[in-house]
Specification:
Radius of gyration: 20 Å
Order of helices and strands: HH
Helix content: 25-40%
Strand content: under 5%
Distance between the termini: 76 Å
Number of helices: 2
Number of strands: 0
Largest sheet: none
């Protein structure tokens, strides 16, 4: 007779929500490269990046001016 032991954690189940992200080709390539180099999932890399920005005491939350503005801020219908 064999007994099967299940490991039950006392932590509550997490509710996950899917998020869709549109990326420039160079950002997608960088994400894929980091995933291959670190063996982390792309989702985990994005989570870690988000947490790092939130924890940055130097004010990394400021607007990133190196990126192109969003299309709806380019004067189309923004009158």
């Amino acid at each position: 007779m064999y007994a099967v032991l299940l490991c039950m954690h006392n932590t509550p189940k997490r509710v996950r929500e899917p998020v869709q992200v549109y990326m420039e080709p160079d950002d997608k390539a960088l994400l894929d490269q980091l995933a291959a180099e670190t063996s982390l999932s792309r989702a985990e890399l994005l989570r870690r990046g988000l947490r790092r920005i939130a924890a940055d005491p130097r004010g990394a939350r400021a607007t990133n001016t190196t990126r192109k503005p969003w299309p709806w801020r380019c004067g189309r219908g923004a009158d």
